[in-house]
Amino acid sequence: MKKIRIVVVDDSPFSVAMLTNTLTSRGFLVEGSANSLEEAVEAVSRLKPDLVTMDMTMPGADGIECTQAIRAVDPDVKVIIVSSMMDDEIVRRAQKAGISGYVQKPVDEEELCLAIQRAMSDDELFVQLDGLYYNVFREALSDTFNRFFKSVPDFQEKQTTKEEQVSRGMSVVMGIIGKYGGRMILDMSEVTAGNIAKFLLKKEEPTKEQMINVMGELPNIIAGNACSLMNKNNSLFGLRVAPPTIVYGECIKISKSVLDTVSSARAATDFGEVYFNVGFNRGVN
């Protein structure tokens, strides 16, 4: 297999030496290094690396500005931020700049190697995810229902349209983070949600708070199990779930999807109809 060619950009000679030693020991080819924006642009122009590791703080520029400068020379080069600074604002700017990943100092070797592998397998990895995610999330939903209710949903035909939907009364949105960001939505009527809560809690009249608690945890289990199955298929996905957002009320619109790939289906259950929707964005999360 062709070795991945890397240029290390960092204003600290110590950091350059540490990263070079780590990358070389893990089988990567470190072609050179740079200590400033100007040196980085020259190194990328001359060496044409596959990937650049980028510190956030350098003389006269930060890592985002330096990334923009080297991308003007080589739009295809992958960039991974390797920096002690890693707050929400830096992550947001890195995402907006199209940076492929970020690793915080002191660097964990496994984390750095995984970030590089994810960056270099981006196109193939998204194609793999696109071919897997719907069936895996659907399987997780069916398995969760079978375990809790001893019955499985009857799914209608899979849909891939991105049309706006009107909520049936209660929507639970599970954010998904990892190599690719996405989300899973379960939408149902309050009657259906109430029937599910009634069954699980063994209460004839569960309160609204109890129903909301149940409907927050059930999709969390479904999405969590699906992410685990996806990661077992390929650890480069690195998927995990974020806390749920629950919205309920009449005439609430489920926004038209802006995801790069999305699939949905209606499912008949013993408790009523459930609308199931899951999708992902190609960009790094």
Question: Which labels suit this protein?
Answer:
six-stranded antiparallel β-sheet, alpha/beta, elongated, Chemotaxis protein chec, 285 residues, 2 domains, Rossmann fold, 8 helices
Please specify the SSE layout and strand pairing.
Blueprint: E1 5-9, H1 13-25, E2 29-34, H2 37-47, E3 51-54, E4 57-58, E5 61-62, H3 63-73, E6 78-83, H4 88-96, E7 101-104, H5 109-120, H6 122-149, E8 154-155, E9 165-166, E10 170-177, E11 180-188, H7 190-201, H8 208-233, E12 240-248, E13 253-254, E14 261-269, E15 272-284
Parallel strand pairs: 1-2, 1-3, 3-6, 6-7
Antiparallel strand pairs: 4-5, 8-14, 9-13, 10-11, 10-12, 11-15, 14-15
Major β-sheet annotation: 6 strands, antiparallel
Major sheet: arrangement of strands: 8-14-15-11-10-12
Q: Tell me the series of helices and strands, N- to C-terminal.
A: EHEHEEEHEHEHHEEEEHHEEEE
Task: Quote the CATH topology of the largest domain.
Answer: Chemotaxis protein chec
Helix/strand structural class? alpha/beta
Can you characterise this structure?
This protein is 43% helix and 29% strand. It is of the alpha/beta class and 285 residues long. It folds into 2 domains: 5-120, Response regulator (Rossmann fold), CATH 3.40.50; 124-284, Chemotaxis protein chec, CATH 3.40.1550.10. α7 crosses α8. The longest helix is centred in the middle third of the chain and has 28 residues, at 122-149. It is elongated and about 70 Å long. The mean pLDDT is 91.
